[in-house]
Amino acid sequence: MYGAETWTLRAADQKYLESFEMWCWRRMEMIIWTDHVRNEEVLLRVNEQRTIQHEIRKRKANWIGHILRRNCLLKQVMERKIKGEMEVARRRGRRRKKLLDDLKDRRGYSYLKEEALDRTLWRHRFGGGFGPVVRQNTE
Fold first, then answer.
1. Are the beta carbons of 58 and 129 closer than 8 angstroms?
2. Is residue 139 a part of any domain in this protein?
3. Helix and strand tally (H, E) in the chain?
4. What are the tens digits of pLDDT across the range 54-81?
5. Which of 49, 69, 102, 123 has CA atoms 20 to 30 A from the CA of 55?
6. What is the value of pTM for the model shown?
7. Closest CA to 131 of 55, 70, 36
8. Is the pLDDT of residue 12 over 60?
9. Cα separation of 77 and 7, whole Å?
């Protein structure tokens, strides 16, 4: 997970990460695929929850909070004060996901920037606010 703070995760990427995490748990428990053991049962055996996405979001929030508290070049690029892209015609399809899209809510960037100045509030909101991913069985 080196450099996970800068990843922009699509739904497919999140699925791959969850699959990888479950593959690791299965390898540690020496469960082969022919055993047909459900993921929930594997998690109960190891007494764990799915935590890889939680850890990525937490690292991303800490890193972005650090950037927003400083006055550096990366902050200026994030605020689009420095253009770091070429002029290209509008792309087809869905808009690309950006770095801050995971943390932004409907209040916007300025509110996020104000919250980053208060480190304890930031850590309370983003440091522990993302709980581990727990899937509920609908059966």
1. no
2. no
3. 6, 0
4. 888 888 878 888 888 877 777 777 766 6
5. 69
6. 0.66
7. 55
8. yes
9. 16
